[in-house]
Specification:
The protein has 247 residues and is an alpha+beta fold. The protein has 2 domains: 158 residues, Jelly Rolls; 83 residues, Winged helix-like DNA-binding domain superfamily/Winged helix DNA-binding domain (Arc Repressor Mutant, subunit A). The protein is built from 8 helices and 12 strands. Strands 1-2-9-4-7 form a 5-stranded antiparallel beta sheet. Strand 11 and strand 12 form a beta hairpin. Helix 5 runs antiparallel to helix 8 and helix 6 crosses helix 7. The chain is elongated and about 55 Å long.
């Protein structure tokens, strides 16, 4: 389910509710518009939509026209595509502070389907707004280039760490990656077995067997509820990774 509200981002005095909301935003300094100076903010004359998605809701579909980019304020988003054989693959993740949907900046369709893993909060930024701001002399063009590089690095790391090597090592590396997106209580989003298979190119049976082994070893503790969350023992995870790397 998607919920949306319009947020005007005209620069106004600090007593304005939106000015207060922007000042209190926890990802403001690391988000795309953190690169703008006051003059850049003064040139904004449009609306940004604040979006909230439930788990498994689609943020945007593969192949649809890219009209906006999105900043992830909270939660975790996965990117899916289907191979020519009809196999589903999850090709990367994005979390808090990340910019997604950059294809829109080149007026291209979205390359992957973006799906919420957890409850997700996004800011939808129209491409026309980015184009307007990028024509200025500010730091936004450089910030966009840096974020393209971050996305490229993430994709290359995903291939290097999660698409090659023994199945157990790939799963351990995935858990390490998920720990980077843990919630304030230290819990991670726990993919379904079929989602693990789609991420790591392994069968559901292999994923289930490995998860059971990690639970017995104390590396992973699944939540008792249906919240699809888990808690990791960081020391046990690192020990298991060292054992795999030295094997």
């Amino acid at each position: 389910m998607l919920r949306m509200t319009g947020i005007a981002i005209y620069r106004q005095d600090d007593r304005h509710p939106q000015a207060q909301a922007c000042a209190a935003c926890e990802v403001r300094s690391s988000a795309l518009f953190g690169a703008l100076d006051d003059a850049g903010l003064d040139r904004i004359h449009t609306h940004i939509a604040s979006l909230t998605f439930d788990p498994d809701a689609t943020v945007y579909d593969r192949g649809t026209a890219g009209l906006a980019v999105y900043t992830v304020r909270a939660g975790l988003v996965r990117f899916e595509r289907t191979t020519e054989r009809g196999d589903r693959r999850i090709v990367r993740l994005a979390g808090r502070g990340d910019l997604i949907g950059q294809e829109a900046l080149l007026q291209r369709p979205y390359a992957d389907e973006a799906v919420a893993c957890t409850p997700v909060q996004l800011c939808r930024i129209p491409r026309t707004l980015i184009d307007e701001l990028a024509r200025g002399e500010g730091t936004l063009p450089r910030e966009l280039m840096l974020r393209w590089q971050v996305a490229l690095d993430a994709a290359e790391t995903w291939v290097a760490d999660l698409s090659t090597g023994p199945a157990r090592r790939r799963l351990l590396r995935l858990l390490l990656r998920l720990s980077e997106h843990a919630d304030p209580g230290g819990q991670i989003w726990m993919p379904r077995r079929e989602e693990i298979g789609a991420m790591l190119d392994m069968t559901v049976e292999t994923a289930s067997r490995l998860i059971s082994a990690l639970r017995r070893e104390g590396v992973l503790e699944l939540a008792r509820s249906r919240s699809r969350s888990a808690r990791l023992d960081a020391a046990a995870l690192q020990k298991a990774l060292r054992a795999e790397d030295s094997a």
